[in-house]
Amino acid sequence: MSAIKATAEDAASSAKAGVAKAKATADEKVEKAKTRDPLKKREVEEDKEDRKLQIESDERVEKAAHGPERTVAHTAGER
């Protein structure tokens, strides 16, 4: 049962990370639309990439925490 729980938690982590990445992209587009300074636009783009990398890193850390729960011992006749 814990393997199912870990899978569900992994799916939740992925969904949460996807929402955060979409928000970072949307924020970046709004900020780029608001400014006329090309250097500022470049900074905004770099900030978005940094945020996405941080989100992906957080997702991997969160999924790694679910790893020990995945260990399931199967007995003969189970499947």
Automatic annotation (TrEMBL):
Q: List the signal peptide residues.
A: none
What are the coiled-coil residue ranges?
none
One Gene Ontology BP term is: embryo development ending in seed dormancy
Q: Which InterPro entries match?
A: LEA_1
Which domain of life does this protein belong to? Eukaryota
Task: Point to the regions of Low complexity compositional bias.
Answer: 1-23
Q: What Pfam families does the entry give? A: LEA_1
Q: Where is this region: Disordered?
A: 1-79
Q: Compositional bias (Basic and acidic residues) spans? A: 24-79
Family designation: Belongs to the LEA type 1 family.
Protein name per its UniProtKB record: Protein LE25
